[in-house]
Design brief:
With about 180 residues, the chain is of the alpha/beta class. The chain has helices spanning about 1-10, 20-25, 30-35, 60-75, 95-105, 120-130, 165-170, 170-175; strands at about 45-50, 80-85, 110-115, 135-140, 145-155.
């Protein structure tokens, strides 16, 4: 666990909020463990977690990891190489949406990023209207304010099921978020 924590201290420099958070918990083994004991896992339709530093938190690295898995799936599937992205007013929603768009673009997938806050149904509509292969909505829905989330939608505009990452995006399990 300490190796992963040290790696994050050294490499997680792209979000200026993460290093001070990690330094603040360095003498608290339970807090360090909670951030790194697992990778944030897909649940109902995507990822949801406390915003912060670590593989068990929502941050730009977990968003990138999930998006890389989705990009790998889209590039291997007979689906349009495009995705719509929406976000709500949650903390870091704009940042996470932009990071998802960057990963998609790096994988030659067109990203349609809403320029403003949108409700989740607008994402479902955009996926169908733009004939996208997938959609991403940055939202934690009903969870407390310290959470954010990453919901994935299929080409039909419907939220994916909890089993979908195993079936359609096995590369999610192969991606790492500063943990390898």
């Amino acid at each position: 666990m300490n190796n992963i924590y040290q790696r994050w201290l050294e490499l997680a420099v792209e979000d200026p909020d993460l290093i001070p958070e990690l330094e603040a918990v360095k003498d608290d083994p339970a807090a360090v463990s909670d951030r790194f004991y697992r990778d944030l896992a897909f649940g109902t339709g995507g990822l949801r977690g406390v915003i912060g530093a670590g593989s068990n938190r929502m941050n730009i690295y977990t968003v990138r990891r999930a998006t890389q898995g989705l990009a790998s799936y889209l590039n291997a599937a007979a689906l349009p190489k495009s995705a719509a992205i929406a976000y709500d007013s949650r903390f870091k929603g704009v940042l996470f949406a932009r990071e998802a768009a960057r990963v998609l673009a790096a994988n030659s997938i067109t990203a349609y990023l809403y320029p403003r806050l949108e409700p989740t149904p607008a994402l479902s509509w955009a996926v169908r209207y733009l004939h996208c292969g997938a959609g991403i909505c940055i939202t934690a829905s009903h969870n407390p304010a310290q959470y954010n989330g990453y919901k994935v939608y299929g080409a039909d505009g419907c939220q994916i099921t909890p089993e979908a990452p195993d079936r359609c995006c096995p590369s999610l399990k192969k991606q790492t978020a500063l943990t390898a």
